[in-house]
Amino acid sequence: xxxxxxxxxxxxxxxxxxxxxxxxxxxxxxxxxxxxxxxxxxxxxxxxxxxxxxxxxxxxxxxxxxxxxxxxxxxxxxxxxxxxxxxxxxxxxxxxxxxxxxxxxxxxxxxxxxxxxxxxxxxxxxxxxxxxxxxxxxxxxxxxxxxxxxxxxxxxxxxxxxxxxxxxxxxxxxxxxxxxxxxxxxxxxxxxxxxxxxxxxxxxxxxxxxxxxxxxxxxxxxxxxxxxxxxxxxxxxxxxxxxxxxxxxxxxxxxxxxxxxxxxxxxxxxxxxxxxxxxxxxxxxxxxxxxxxxxxxxxxxxxxxxxxxxxxxxxxxxxxxxxxxxxxxxxxxxxxxxxxxxxxxxxxxxxxxxxxxxxxxxxxxxxxxxxxxxxxxxxxxxxxxxxxxxxxxxxxxxxxxxxxxxxxxxxxxxxxxxxxxxxxxxxxxxx
Length: 431
What we know:
By secondary structure, the protein is an alpha/beta fold. It is 47% helix and 16% strand. A hairpin with a 2-residue loop joins strand 11 (314-318) and strand 12.
C-alpha cells in the first residue's frame, strides 16, 4: 500500500514513527542484543520507525488473526517438536559449513572463506525454512489454500513443496519475465501440484508478482493465507519469516565455533527482501563480528539499472510496510533491475532498514559483472554452483577478503544454481 492510499490514522502513525528516528539511531550503543529479539519488533510490528501494517481494515483483521495464531503456536511444544522433526527428517538440516580452501588460496591474502550451505537444504535454498513453518501455521488455522509470489522461483518451489507435504492447495504468482528466466523452477512448481499464475503487468517481475498475489489474497483471506516469501510485508510477516529463518544463524554460529574454535571476523549475505540475510545475521548480532548485506548494483547507479534500495533509497510505504525503498519522480516504487530474479525488488525488509540506520550492519553493492565472475569462480574452484542471488554474496566476500588481509569470512550460500543454468548459458555462454 502506497502512502497516498493510507487513511488518516495510518499517516499519523507513520509521522509519529518518523519523529522517533533520531532517538532510535542514538540508541545503537545502548541496545542489548541479548534481548533484541524480545524487543524488536514491538507489539505493533515496528523496528524503530520501520515495519508496521498499512493495509485495509478487513485485511488487518486477517493479519491480527495470523499474528495471534503465530504467537500462540510458536510457544507450543507440539509445534516446535514437529518443526524440528521436519527440519531433520525432511529438509535435511542442519546444513553444513564448507571451507573454500582453494578459492581462499587463490585470493592469496591469508583470509579464509567459508560458506553456510543452504544450497543443500531440501529444494535447494533457504526458503523452505520459513515455508514449512508458514504452512504448518496455515494448517493449524484451518486454512485450505496458501498464496504466494515468487521471483527466482525458489520461494514458489519451497511453498509448493510445503503445500504438498501438508495437503493444501497452492497458488503461485510469478512475473512473465521471471517465468521465462526460471523455467526449471516453474516446472518443479507444477509437478508439485501448484498453480503458477503468470503476471503480465508492469515490468513483469517480482514487484508485480507481489502486487498480484496481494490482490488475490484480499479476495480469499478467509480461506487462504498469504505466505510472504521474505522478511517484508505487513506485521507479523517480517517477524515470522525472520524467526523461522533464524535456524540458519543458530546453526552457523555453533558450527563455525566447532570447526575453527572461534567466531568469523565477518558474515556476508545477499539482500533483496532479505530473508536469508536476516536468518544468518540473527546468529551473530550480539557478537564482535562485522556483518555485511550485499545489494544488487546491476548495470550501474542510474535509477532502473539496479535494485539497491538500502544504498540509494529513501523511506516509503509499499506492500503494507514502511521501509527504505527506491522511488521514481512521482514518489512511486521505482522500476528495478538485477541479473538475479530473487533480488529485483524496490524495497527491503523493515528490520534491514532498522539495522542499516543503527549501523549494526553495513550494506554495500556488487555489479552484475562481479556477480557472474563469482558464479564461475566458485563453481570451478570449489565444485559448488551457486544461485545468482548467492553469487552476489560470494562476489562481495571475495572483495572483502582482498581488503582485510587476515581473518575469516562466513558467506551465506542461500541457494544452488540449478535454476539459473539456462539463463547463464543463454546470456553468458560457457566461459
